[in-house]
Each structure stands twice: as structure tokens, then as C-alpha cells.
Amino acid sequence: MKLRRSLFCLLLAGAALAAQTHSRKKTPPPAPPAASNAAFPLETLQVTGNHNYTAEQVLAVAGLKLGEPVTKENFEAARNRLLATGVFDIVGYRYEPAKDGKGYDGVFEITEMKQLFPLRFEDLPATDAELRAWLKQKDPLFAPRIPATQPALDRYVKLISEFLEEKNYHEPVAGRLLPDVPPEMVVVFRPAVPHPSVAQVKFIASGPITPDILQKQMYQVAVGSIFTEPNFRTLLDTTIRPLYEARGYIRVTFPKIEASPAEDVKGVVVAVTVDPGAVYTFGKVTFTGAQPPQQSFEKLAKLPKDDIANFDQVKAGQKNIEDSFRRSGFLQVKSEVKRTLHDEGKTVDLTFQLTPGPQFVFGRLSIVGLDLVSEPVIRKMWGLEPGRPFNPEYPNHFLDRVKEDGIFDNLKNTRSDTKLDSEKLVADVTLYFNK
Predict the structure, then answer these.
(1) Are the C-beta atoms of residues 39 and 71 closer than 8 Å to each other?
(2) Alpha-carbon distance 330 to 219, whole Å?
(3) Omega within 30 of 0 (cis) for the link into 242
(4) Where are the domains positioned within the chain?
(5) Average pLDDT, the chain
(6) First vs last C-alpha separation in the chain
(7) Most CB atoms within 10 A, among 40, 51, 87, 213?
(8) Is 327 or 123 the better-scoring residue by pLDDT?
(9) Buried/exposed 155-188: b ≥16 CB within 10 Å, e otherwise
(10) How far apart are CA 190 and CA 169, in angstroms?
């Protein structure tokens, strides 16, 4: 009995010396001596380096079971199963004698893929919920965001195809990483055939705006583009929604988008149903983040309470406020307008959040193209003194005044150039004259 136990301990000691960490990126070391490859029960198994996946998820794919005899080949096979998922960048392992001297303690050391993307299903004969439930059932590592590695894409394409075959759908499926709403990317699973292009756009129940106006606007941006519903909805939001919001229809929606093959050309006809909703009026308008450098914000915004909520006017008011800051030297001003809708009273409150940034002052004036007699005349006319807040509109306004006053005969053209020193917050101006 003592002899057998001594032999067992010797074998485990050999395994401890030979246990190595293997990775996909490194050439595996030479195989350990034969004695270290003896099979003994797996007593513990841990995972290190995991963040997006639990140890239970990782071990479910690895496939090793506690209590079962394992050898180096078993660990190698488990490592290969993990790498084949396309989810892990590096997978290593080590195993050593357990404290009780009766088996092995094992550890998988993993590095997960850093970039994960949301996924979407398009033009497949199954709902999003059905496909996600199937993938979750079949893949212990399935999550709302997945890596876009080719092994991962191929694996999910295979699982999706298996599910669709049960629904008597046998067309090839493809998975690709595609642009979504900028700057996002998304993994899309759909039929392997190319996306159709938009041949024509129709509008149904367009409310206060006639369909021909909407079709003319969409024709410029949509016809000839690749059709996917998310991309098309983005075009509606950027091109059509502003037309309704300029009339106070803040809750406009596009509840149905249907694409059908065009009859006379290659592509699809996209029919859009519009629900304008109710007209909203302006409620409270507030301003935060800064004090007005010149005129009051209310006078610049020009958004009277109870007027129809015209968001073209909101954009114009936002520009007026930013321009006022720029004329006072705040050249990097930024602003954001936030809405608070009150559906019961059909009003919208606006909050202008203002970030003026640093104030630039005028530094030095340089003049190019004038002689020693003419240059002093221009310098005397120049009214902006060094150290004063810099108005970026002033140089061109000044040159227009020089032309209008007829200071020079045969003056062909003029231009100005402004160089900003972001560290010193100084703006230097050069005026160019061509006589």
C-alpha cells in the first residue's frame, strides 16, 4: 500500500514540474515526460482573467468535469474548444497535484477579446426574441454583445442556420460587422444575398405636409442607397423629422416602413407611414452655464412662450447665442438644447446649456501688399486694440469697409488670415491687399 502511494506522489510531483501555460500566441513547449501525463481525478478547476463571462460559462465550454480522470491531452482539448469559440484572445492552462495528494488542481488562464458589438437580425423568418433565446440555449457564452472574430461569426451563423432549417428555411445566412448609427458598429446576421437598394420612396398619411414635398426631400438622400430599416430610419430622422418639428409636431413618428420589389427597376419601393401627432407650443425657456456677454439670451433666442414650437427657430436662436459669444472672444463656445415635453398640455420646455470656453484677445496686426505710405493709413483705421476681446467677424468687416470707402484705386482683392494661440489665448491677424 505504501509503495503504491509513493508511486502516485512521484507521478504527481512529475506533473507539477511539467505543468505549463499554453497560449494561442506562443509556440507550446516540448511535451512533459510520460510520467507527468498520468490520469488522475480532477479535484478543483478555476478560471482567471475573465471579465465579461462567468467562470461557469467558461467551464461549460471547456467541458472538463470534477472527479473525472484527466491528462494533459484533456486540458489541450479543452483549451482548443475555448479558442474555437472566437471569444478569447489567449487561453492557457496549468495543473498540479492537489493538497490531499489524490488528484489534480487545474486553472484556465484566459484573455477575452476586448471589442464587443451589439448584434441584430435582419430579413430572417424568425423574431429577434426567438433567435436570441435559441443562441442562449445553445451557446453558454452568448451575450447581448459579441466579438466580431471570424470563428465567432461562423459559429453563430451555423447555430442560426440550424434553427431556421427547422422552420424550412434553407437560404445561406451571413454575419458581418457593419456601420450603424455613427460612430457605432453592429454585427448583422441576415441572408447572404446583398442588401437591395432604394428605388423609390412613398409616404402614407403624411398629415400637414404633402407627400410630394417629403418624397422630394428623401429622393436626394435615399434613392440609390442600400436599404436596411435602421439606416432608413436614420435618414427619416435627419431629413423628414425636422420638417415636422418646424411646424410644432414634436412627437412625429414613422410607425411602419415596408419595402417591396420595384416593378420597372432593380431595387425596392419603400412605403413610409407617418403619424404627425399633435402640435406643441413653447413653454418655459431657460439658460444655464453662462451669463450673456452682450444682449440678453431671451432677445437672441426669440422664442416667445405659447408660440408654436418651431425648432427651426430654436436652431436659429441657438446660433444667435453662439455668435454673440464668438463676437466677444469666446471662439470655442458650445451649446446644447434639451427638451422637456409635457404631453398633457402639449408644451415643450427648453433648456439652453452653454459652455463658453476660454476668451481670446486680439494680439498683433500684420499687413501684406501695401507700401510704406499706405500701410500706416490702414493701421490707423484698424479699430481693434491689442488685449481687447477678439471678434472673428471684424477682419473681413474691416476689409469690406476699406473697399466701400474707396481708400485705394484699382484694389483687386483682399483677404484676412487669423492664427490662434490656444495656450496664450491670443488671435493674430494678417491682412492681404492685392492692388
Answers:
(1) yes
(2) 39
(3) no
(4) 2-112, 117-191, 198-275, 281-355, 361-434
(5) 90
(6) 111
(7) 87
(8) 327
(9) bbbebbeebbeeeeeeeebebebbebeeeeebbb
(10) 12
Cell representation of residue 227: 436599404
For residues 190 and 123, is the Cβ–Cβ distance under 8 A? yes
CA distance 102 to 32: 20
In which band, very low, low, confident or very high, does the pLDDT at 193 lie, cut at 50, 70 and 90? confident
- In contact, 53 and 112? CB cutoff 8 Å: yes
Q: What pLDDT band is residue 407 in, cutting at 50, 70 and 90? A: confident
361-434, CATH topology level:
Ubiquitin-like (UB roll) (3.10.20)
Residue 213: the pLDDT is 95
Does an H or E element contain 97, and which?
strand 88-97
CB distance 227 to 210 below 8 Å: no
Whether the model clears a pTM of 0.70, i.e. scores above it, the answer is: no
Q: Which three cell numbers stand for residue 251?
A: 412627437
Query: Which pLDDT belongs to residue 399?
Result: 95
**Which CATH architecture best describes the domain 198-275?**
Roll (3.10)
CATH class of the 281-355 domain in this structure:
alpha beta
Annotate 7-24 with b (16+ C-beta within 10 A) or e (fewer).
Answer: ebeebbebbeebbbebbe
Contact of 201 with 184, CB cutoff 8 Å: no
Among candidate residues 389, 419, 415, the one with its CA nearest the CA of residue 402: 415
Show the cell assigned to 201: 420612396
Buried b (16+ CB within 10 A) or exposed e, 228-242: beebbeebbeeebbe
Tell me which amino acid residue 44 is: T
Residue with cell 426669440: 302
Query: Mind giving me the DSSP string for 5-58?
Result: HHHHHHHHHHHHHH-----TTSPPPPPPPGGGG--EEEEEEEEES-SSS-HHHH
Class of 2-112 in CATH: alpha beta
Mean pLDDT of 401-408: 89
Helix axis angle, 150-165 relative to 72-84, nearest 10°?
80
What digits encode the pLDDT tens for the residues 284-318?
999 999 999 989 999 999 999 999 999 999 999 99
